[in-house]
Every structure is written in C-alpha cells, then in structure tokens.
Amino acid sequence: MKTSNPDHNSTLRKKLRQLRQNQNQNNIRRGALRIRARLYTWLATQKLHMQEQGRDEILHVAAFWSLPEEPELQPLLNKWALEDNGIELSLPCIEGDEAPLVFRPWDMDTPMRNGRYDIPEPDTDRLAPKPDIVLVPTLGFTRAGDRLGYGKGYYDRSLAALKAAYHPFVSIGVAWACGDLGEQDYQPQPHDQPLDGILTDLGWAKPAPQL
Q1: Which of 29, 1, 9 is nearest to 147 (CA)?
Q2: pTM beyond 0.85, yes or no
Q3: What is the CATH number of the domain that holds 85?
C-alpha cells in the first residue's frame, strides 16, 4: 500500500536528486533544449489560438530561474523577453518561510540579487500581475499531475493562494523524465497542489490544457 509518510517522501527526494545527478551531460543539454522548444511551441500555439478568438490580451508568465540541476530555462526566457509577442515575464521571490511566493516582473535589463537559498530573483519592489501561466520546478511527478517538490511548500502555498483568489491560471511542471514516480511508492500529501500539465525532456507527461 502506498504511504503518505513525510519521512518517506524525504527519502524519495534524495533518490530523485541522485537520479538527476547520474544523468549524462550531453543528454542534459539536449533534454533542456527539447523542453525549451516544446514550451516555446506550446505558448506560441496558445497565443495564436487566442488571437483567432479575438483575445489579444497580454499573457503573464511566472517562470523560474533554473538552478544547475534543473532543466535550463534561461535561454527561453531571454528569447521571450526579446520578442514582441504579447508575453510579460515574472520570477518568484521568497519573502517568508510560511508565505506564498511573490512574483516580480523580469526582463533582460532587470537587475538580479541572490535571494533565499541563493536563488537569483529580480532586484525590484514592483509586483507583477497575477500570472496566467505558472512554470513550476518539479522534482518528481505522476502522469495524473501530482508533484513532488523540494519540501518547503512554496509552490503549493502559491498555487493554493491563486486558487483561493479565484484567479484562472495554468500550472505547468518542468521536470526531468527520471522524476517519473510511476514506479515509486508515492502518494501526495493533503496540501499538495496538482499541476495542469507536466513537461519533461522526453515530452509531455501530462499535456497542458488550452488557455
């Protein structure tokens, strides 16, 4: 029987981190490129679909600044920022151990600072609009959309807060395929927020819906 023991999930996180570290560097580079290409295509398709419906509003995308062990998104963020594509970007900032993330606007001219856990974040007090799309760093996942994160709960609190505010958005987990929990003894915690889509280096583990 599957367990929801938090200590078990901590052990599982260590196992998944080790699987990440064991990946071939060439596969990592190619896999990150495939993830960026699929994200770019998905969002471009969404924009086209919206335009066909007469919906030309700006899309607000809450991205994240990839850490070395995560699929590298920075080249894609730069591409989006350079294009006149009706997309505005933000990045998460940590402002308290038990608080949701705060999203602050970002472009290529935005100064950065090291925030909590030395994660780069925009060096500004401005707040971004509530996101239409949230890209979520994902350590482990199921094809039903369950996410195993890093154990601090920031994204679970943030997604829950957006839902509590009745704000419509799409959440997309970005993960390495080795994080697939299908063969693992795993069950989500009651506070875990399911994701609308999950993208890996091997493709969409859970296809994202249309906006």
Answers
A1: 9
A2: yes
A3: 3.40.50.10420
